[in-house]
Recover the amino acids of this structure.
């Protein structure tokens, strides 16, 4: 049975379904925009499309431009059509607001809504009911700007006469809407962001979390603003997966779209909403990558712990992660062991630091040792994974998942080793503090913010965090060298822009901005800085020359260290990199490097864009090259074919950004004549007999700088053995660590802490 406002497209049998999915179209559209959805629906789901007056089969009717009247009419139609089925409301673009207002009315009339889905839509907070009169020119500009149709078609008066009136009606609907009116509903909300959407970016979609008192989950799909048409299988999965009693459609399981869905729909986890209790307790199962708040395994088993941590999706999209559910799990683990804990909130809801403190025995003569990990991880979007990045799967002796290497595996080793000592009744000569930082990857509320806002709260005497590696001999199984890093590289973000002129795609020309950008990027990709190992790198490579059983590799290392000119050192250093089993790692420890992270151009399929940009990071070794000189060299290399600019903090000039970086690079190395460093070296001897243990330069950036600036020694370790494939997958696809290596690395942490016990 259809309602005037609702239609059931295709040959559906609604009486055989348990769920009714009601779809609200974007601006100017109607139910046909969801035509490709019918065959991809999960079994047990019927699709109903909203058909408003003024379009489709109701084209002769007067459009509705009042949001309340619109939502009231749709809610009445849903009540008539529902027949006791579970309701899911799905709105695309403007349709997200329509679905939201309809949801309010259904809940007010005590009709339950199982899920509300906002796809590529602005949230109610963006509308205040103060829109001006919408004109034909406004509608024409909207159609052209959003790619709703080809601009050339708008030159046809008959086509414009059909297309523009419903667009104008919907624009007037939005212009008069005030999203602040009415109560925030209690409903599960899924906010779906399209990764290539130029109109509704991720930061806008995330704000939907403030508009439900239930759980809110942020999901991403590949595609642009109309991803529901470009990538329908992914959007269907994002909206309808996980409903009780539903199964994937037979067509989607058997067809070619199944793999695409699995690789493009990656949940970013529970987003902060207006109900903290609901956020913490209502996280779905592992399929959504949010995990639960409890832990049922052995807390001294690092593998159990790492799996549980990975299943908490703490992806950090750039403005901080939601770490509260993971912190509550850790709190339960430590409290069960009798260890005091504290969760410290930040200004971002759900973004918290976690602390557990094992007090030392006797007089407090030594300041605490801090085991510093970070609970946030980089997102697992954009590139295809063969495994679920938030399932914590173990296959062929490898633990897969985002953060398994960086750095939930290390966190699991810290926690498991410390709790093993606690279980044994250990007495330490100082407090041991486990600190799980929430914003290491990106975000404003990380370690520096905490130390500034809470001075003296930690008062560390030494810190151990992520850093050095354990590498094998060429046979891939025999441990060769273990390193503890005592300083980090620092990086500078640079932006490249090329310019030509914009024109119609029918008239391409030489020197297009995109082509110029590619040519300049290719040239920068061939650039190599001189091999210039600093003091820490020289110490490491000298120990590596003694540790390796590869005679040719050892000869190249010694030749590089003995070189007296740039030419000799570059030649020998390139040979070192070529012969290394981990060439990317050792290259980064020897010179300034460039890493290219983003390229952008174009905004419409029939326009050759006039500009193209790319961003890349230059990473510098402390004590090696001056960043200002490197920027000048790169500008000289590309000449006037592109503009190269330094991207500093907001309000910073280029000189200020360079001077700030120089200050970071001047931070002294951590002293390795300390009891903590000696305890680590002794631990390596116990767990890896015969392996060289050395201080080292870290090739990446950590949260160590604020401590080093206060002359507090900070040491970095990944205590388990790694190989080239593992290192390449750090921040990449199918990130993993070895299960046996994780257990052996945890033993190293345990033995390090054993060196600080007073009851041994």
């Amino acid at each position: 049975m259809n309602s005037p406002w609702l239609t059931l497209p295709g040959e559906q049998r609604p009486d055989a379904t348990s769920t009714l999915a009601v779809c609200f179209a974007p601006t100017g559209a109607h139910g046909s925009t969801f035509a490709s959805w019918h065959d991809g629906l999960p079994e047990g789901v019927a699709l109903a499309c909203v058909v408003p007056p003024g379009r489709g089969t109701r084209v002769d009717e007067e459009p509705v431009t009042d949001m309340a009247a619109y939502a009231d009419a749709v809610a009445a139609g849903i009540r008539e059509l529902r027949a006791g089925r579970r309701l899911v409301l799905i709105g695309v673009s403007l349709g997200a607001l329509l679905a939201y207002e309809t949801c309010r009315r259904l809940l007010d009339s005590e009709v339950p809504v199982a899920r509300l889905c906002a796809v590529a839509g602005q949230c109610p907070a963006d509308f205040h009911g103060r829109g001006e009169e919408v004109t034909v020119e406004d509608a024409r500009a909207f159609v052209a700007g959003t790619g709703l149709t080809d601009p050339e078609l708008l030159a046809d008066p008959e086509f414009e006469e059909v297309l523009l009136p419903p667009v104008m009606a919907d624009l007037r609907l939005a212009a008069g809407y005030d999203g602040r009116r009415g109560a925030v509903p209690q409903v599960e909300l899924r906010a779906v962001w399209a990764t290539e959407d130029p109109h509704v970016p991720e930061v806008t979609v995330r704000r939907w979390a403030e508009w439900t008192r239930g759980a809110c989950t942020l999901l991403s799909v590949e595609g642009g603003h109309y991803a529901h048409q470009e990538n329908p299988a992914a959007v269907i999965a994002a909206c309808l997966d996980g409903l009780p009693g539903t199964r994937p459609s037979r067509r989607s399981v058997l067809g070619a779209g199944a793999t695409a869905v699995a690789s493009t729909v990656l949940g970013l986890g529970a987003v902060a909403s207006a109900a903290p209790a609901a956020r913490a307790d209502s996280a779905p199962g592992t399929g959504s990558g949010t995990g639960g708040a409890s832990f049922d395994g052995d807390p001294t088993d690092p593998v159990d712990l790492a799996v549980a941590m990975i299943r908490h999706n703490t992806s950090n999209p750039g403005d901080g992660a939601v770490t509260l559910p993971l912190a509550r799990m850790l709190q339960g683990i430590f409290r069960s062991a009798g260890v005091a804990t504290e969760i410290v909130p930040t200004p971002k809801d759900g973004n918290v630091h976690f602390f557990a403190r094992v007090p030392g025995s006797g007089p407090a003569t030594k300041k605490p040792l801090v085991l510093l990990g970070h609970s946030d991880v980089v997102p697992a979007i954009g590139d295809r994974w063969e495994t679920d990045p938030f399932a914590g799967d173990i296959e062929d002796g490898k633990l897969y998942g985002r953060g398994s290497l960086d750095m939930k595996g290390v966190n699991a080793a810290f926690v498991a080793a410390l709790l093993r000592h606690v279980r044994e009744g250990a007495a330490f000569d100082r407090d041991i503090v486990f600190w799980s930082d929430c914003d290491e990857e990106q975000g404003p509320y990380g370690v520096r913010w905490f130390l500034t806002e809470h001075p003296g709260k930690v008062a560390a005497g030494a810190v151990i965090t992520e850093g050095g590696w354990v590498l094998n001999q060429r046979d891939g199984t025999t441990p060769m060298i273990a390193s503890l890093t005592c300083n980090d590289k620092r990086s500078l973000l640079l932006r490249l822009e090329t310019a030509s002129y914009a024109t119609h795609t029918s008239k391409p020309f030489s020197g297009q901005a995109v082509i110029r950008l590619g040519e300049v990027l290719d040239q920068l990709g061939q650039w190599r800085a001189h091999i210039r190992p600093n003091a820490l790198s020289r110490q490491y490579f000298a120990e590596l020359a003694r540790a390796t059983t590869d005679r040719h590799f050892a000869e190249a290392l010694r030749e590089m260290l003995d070189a007296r000119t740039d030419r000799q050192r570059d030649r020998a250093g390139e040979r070192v990199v070529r012969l290394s089993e981990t060439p990317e790692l050792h290259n980064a420890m020897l010179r300034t490097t460039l890493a290219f992270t983003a390229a952008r151009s174009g905004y419409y399929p029939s326009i050759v864009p006039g500009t193209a940009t790319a961003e890349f990071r230059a990473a510098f070794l402390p004590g090696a090259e001056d960043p200002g000189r490197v920027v000048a060299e790169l500008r000289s290399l590309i000449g006037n074919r592109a503009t190269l600019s330094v991207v500093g903090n907001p309000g910073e000039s280029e000189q200020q950004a360079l001077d700030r970086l120089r200050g970071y690079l001047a931070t002294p190395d951590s002293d390795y004549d300390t009891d903590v460093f000696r305890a680590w070296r002794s631990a390596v001897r116990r767990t890896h007999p015969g392996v060289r243990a050395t201080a080292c330069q870290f090739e990446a950036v950590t949260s160590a700088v604020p401590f080093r600036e206060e002359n507090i020694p900070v040491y970095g370790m990944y205590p388990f053995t790694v190989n080239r494939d593992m290192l390449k997958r750090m921040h990449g696809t199918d990130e993993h660590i070895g299960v046996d290596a994780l257990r052996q690395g945890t033993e190293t942490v345990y033995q390090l802490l054993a060196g600080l016990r007073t009851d041994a």
In short: The CA atoms of residues 675 and 756 lie 8 Å apart. Residues 250-292 have pLDDT under 50 and may be disordered. DSSP finds 25 helices and 25 strands in the chain.
